[in-house]
Design a protein that fits this description.
Number of strands of chain A: 8
Strand order of the largest sheet of chain A: 1-2-3-4-5-6-7-8
CATH topology of chain A: TIM Barrel
Largest sheet of chain A: 8 strands, parallel
Number of domains of chain A: 1
Structural class of chain A: alpha/beta
Shape of chain A: globular
Number of helices of chain A: 16
Helix content of chain A: 40-55%
CATH architecture of chain A: Alpha-Beta Barrel
Order of helices and strands of chain A: EHHHEHEHEHEHHHEHHEHHEHHH
Oligomer: homodimer
CATH superfamily of chain A: Metal-dependent hydrolases
CATH class of chain A: Alpha Beta
C-alpha cells in the first residue's frame, strides 16, 4: 500500500433544522413547529454569548458551498475524498450549532428544562436520518446514535437495539449526568450490557459543561456582561467534563463487569489532561498512605484504571497538534485516533492534507498509519479490507510523510 | 542559621463539637442543642460511608493523647515543637471530621440544606474561638476565618473586617459555588476589595466535592452500596474541585482588578494537576486557532493565567511527596509551601522529622528553605525575624538535609 487509510474519528452531520420535521414521529410535529423559531433564536443567541457570530459568519462565507456536506451525501463524499479520508465516525451537530437535532438532542444534551419525551423524539429523528445517510455506504460511515439515556435506561436499551438493527454502531450518551446518578451506579448496567452484547461503542463527545455556572442561570438568553472570562472558563473546563464520565465508569467497575464494552472520548485535547489523569487514577489505585483513611474502594477492580482504559477505551483526537503525535506513547499509542472535525471551524478541513503532514511528517510510518486510521479501524471495527480499498483511492501518499 | 524555619501551610484546629456552644451567639444555642446529636450522627455515618471508621479509630488509638492539640493550646505547641514547626496556617476541622464547626461551617461548606443564618453563626463561633487560640502567639499562628461567602457578600465583607480586627489573617471561602454565581462574577468584588485592602489572604482548602453525585442524593445518610467506587471518584476529583475557583478567578480578571489580592489553594496534590492545568490555561490565553470561533474572552486580562498565578497565588503542599519537591520548578519554585496537615491522619505528623528528610534531603539548601518555610513567610506575611527566632529553637538542622 502506498497510501495511508485515514479514518476521521470526529465528523459531524446534521440537517438544516426544519428538515428534521419529516423524521419526527407525527405526534411531535406540532410542538416542533412551535419550538423551531425558539430553537433558532437560542442558537443565534448562543453564538452571540460566545461572541462568535461574526467569526462563524466569516468562516461560513469562505466555505459555504461545501458546508452542505453536513447533510448532502454527494457533497459529503466530495469533501471526504478531498480531505483524503476513507472512513468517518459521525456525531450530531453539523455546521457549528446550526444543524443540531430537535429538542436539544445534540452534542450538549441533556439540555435544561426539556421534556424527556421531546428529547427522545428529537434523538430518534436524528438517528433515523443518520441511519439513512450511513446506508449509502456502511463501509465508510460509522454513525453514532444520540441517546438521552439519563431519562430512562430501558428506553436507552430499546434505542440501542434500534440503532443496531438500522446500521448505526455507536451510542452517544450525555457526558453530564447532573442530578441523575453518575455512571458508576448500577442502574445503567442494562445499557452497558446491551451495548456490549450488540457491539455498540459508547461515545462521549466534548461540548457539554455546566453552562449556567459559566454564563449565568439564564444562559443562553441572559446578559453575559456580568460573567467576564466565561468563555475562557468554558474552554478550560470542557475537556474535563467530557473525560469525567470515564472517571465514574472506571472506578465504578463498569469495565470489570462488561469487559468487552468499548467507550470512546472525542475532541478532548488528549495531550494536556489524559496522561496526568491516568497517572493520578493509578496513583489512587496503588497508593495506600494518603487514601488509607478512606477505606476500600478498589477491591471490586481486578485491574488499574489505566489498564481498563488501555483495554476498553480510545480517544477521538480532533484538531490534533504535533505535540500530541510526539507524545503518543504517554497518551497511548493504540488509543489515539486522529479526527478532522468536519464541518466545524476549529477542525482541519478544508486544510486537512497540509495539517496531517504538519502533525505527522517524519514520525515512524507504522505509528502514523495507526493514528491516522489503523487504531480507529481496530477500535470501531471497520472492515479493514474494504476500507483499505477506499484508502488506496483517496488516502495521502505515505512517501510524503517520510522524514 | 543552622536550622530551617518550618511553616506548616496546612494545619487544622477545632473544638470538640459541644464546646462550640459557648462561642455561638446566644440565640443560636437552642437550635445548636437540637442539631448536635444529628451532626454527630451524620459525622459517624459519613465515616462509615467512607468505610473508614475502623481506620480512623485505629489512627486515633495510636496518637490519641496528642490529638487534643486540635484545641488544647499547650498540647498544640508541644506537637508543633516536636514536629520542628515554627509557624502554621490554621484551617478548620480538627481531628478528621470530628471537630468541625457547627452547622456545616467547616471545610466542606457550603453544606446542602443548611439555613444561611445558621451557617454564618457556626462560622462565627469557630472564628471567635480560633482568634482566641491564635492570640496566644500571633507570630506562630496564622488563623484562617471561615466565611460562607456565597449566601451574602456584604456579610462576607463584615466578617473580613471582624477577622482583621481580631487577628485572623485569611478567609476560607467555599470552593464549590454550586447554584450561586461563580467567582468570575462581579458580585464578589466588594469581598475581593476588602481582602486586598485589609491584607487578608483568600484561602481554598480541599475537601468539598459534589458528594451527592458520588454517594447519592441522600449522602451522608443513604446506602452507598449502589455507588461502587464512589470514594475512588471522590479522591480522583477532589483536587479539581479545589483548583476550580482559581480557574474562575483567573479568567474573570479578579487578579487584574485586585492586583494585590492573595489567594492560596491547599492540600491539592500540587504535582499531578497544576503544571498541566497552567499550561492549558496559558494555551487558551495564547491560542488563536482552536478557540477563534469562541471570540474574545481575554482582552480584559493584561497577563496570562500563569502570570497571575505566579504573582498572586501559592500552594499549600500537604503530604508533599518527593517527586513534587523534585518537580518544584514546573509547579512553581516560589509557590510551594510545605504542610504537615496536623492532626489529620494522611499528614506527616507524628512522623514529620523523618518525612521532611525523605521529601527534601539532598536538594539545594535555598530551595529547601523556601519550600519548608521561606515561601510561606513571604506569601502569608509572617514576621521573618520573629518566626526565624522560633525556627532557630525548634527547626531541624540544615546539615541533616545535605546530600
Amino acid at each position: 500500500m502506498d497510501r495511508f487509510t485515514i479514518i476521521s474519528s470526529d465528523c459531524h452531520a446534521g440537517l438544516p433544522a426544519q428538515q428534521y420535521r419529516e423524521y419526527l414521529d407525527p405526534q411531535f410535529r406540532e410542538v416542533f413547529d412551535m419550538a423551531l423559531p425558539i430553537q433558532k433564536e437560542m442558537t443565534d443567541k448562543s453564538e452571540q454569548v460566545f461572541l462568535l457570530k461574526e467569526i462563524n459568519d466569516q468562516w461560513r462565507a469562505g466555505v459555504e458551498a461545501h458546508l452542505t456536506g453536513a447533510w448532502d451525501y454527494d457533497k459529503r463524499i466530495e469533501v471526504l475524498n478531498g480531505d483524503g479520508i476513507a472512513g468517518e465516525i459521525i456525531f450530531p451537530d453539523g455546521i457549528t450549532e446550526q444543524n443540531a437535532p430537535p429538542f436539544g438532542a445534540g452534542l450538549s444534551l441533556p439540555t435544561k428544562d426539556i421534556v424527556p419525551e421531546l428529547q427522545w423524539a428529537g434523538a430518534r429523528a436524528h438517528n433515523r436520518w443518520l441511519a439513512e445517510l450511513c446506508s449509502h455506504n456502511p463501509v465508510r460511515h460509522f454513525g453514532v446514535a444520540v441517546c438521552p439515556l439519563l431519562w430512562d435506561v430501558e428506553e436507552g436499551v430499546k434505542e440501542a437495539r434500534w440503532a443496531k438493527e438500522n446500521g448505526l454502531r455507536g451510542m452517544m450518551i450525555p457526558a453530564m449526568t447532573n442530578d441523575f446518578e453518575g455512571y458508576h451506579h448500577g442502574r445503567y448496567d442494562p445499557f452497558w450490557q446491551a451495548c456490549e452484547d450488540l457491539g455498540l461503542t459508547v461515545c462521549f463527545h466534548s461540548g457539554p459543561g455546566p453552562m449556567q455556572q459559566f454564563f449565568g442561570n439564564d444562559f443562553p438568553m441572559g446578559d453575559v456582561a456580568d460573567y467576564p472570562g466565561a468563555v475562557g472558563i468554558y474552554i478550560s473546563e470542557v475537556f474535563f467534563w467530557t473525560y469525567r464520565p470515564l472517571i465514574f465508569m472506571l472506578w465504578g467497575g463498569v469495565f470489570e463487569r462488561f469487559p468487552k464494552l468499548k467507550c470512546s472520548v472525542t475532541e478532548t485535547g488528549q495531550g494536556w489532561l489524559l496522561p496526568p489523569l491516568l497517572r493520578m487514577l493509578d496513583h489512587h489505585y496503588h497508593d495506600t498512605h494518603f487514601s488509607a483513611k478512606l477505606g476500600d474502594y478498589r477491591s471490586h477492580l481486578s485491574m488499574s484504571p489505566t489498564d481498563y482504559f488501555r483495554r476498553n477505551c480510545a480517544i477521538g483526537a480532533s484538531c490534533m497538534p504535533r505535540e500530541d503525535a510526539e507524545g503518543r506513547h504517554a497518551i497511548g499509542m493504540q488509543q489515539i485516533m486522529w479526527g478532522s472535525d468536519y464541518p466545524h471551524p476549529e477542525g482541519t478541513w478544508p486544510n486537512t492534507p497540509g495539517d496531517v503532514l504538519a502533525t505527522f511528517k517524519g514520525l515512524p510510518e507504522a505509528d502514523v498509519a495507526a493514528m491516522l486510521g489503523g487504531n480507529a479501524i481496530d477500535f470501531y471495527g471497520f472492515d479493514r479490507a474494504a476500507i483499505d480499498a477506499i484508502g488506496a483511492e483517496v488516502g495521502p501518499l505515505r512517501a510524503a510523510f517520510a522524514a
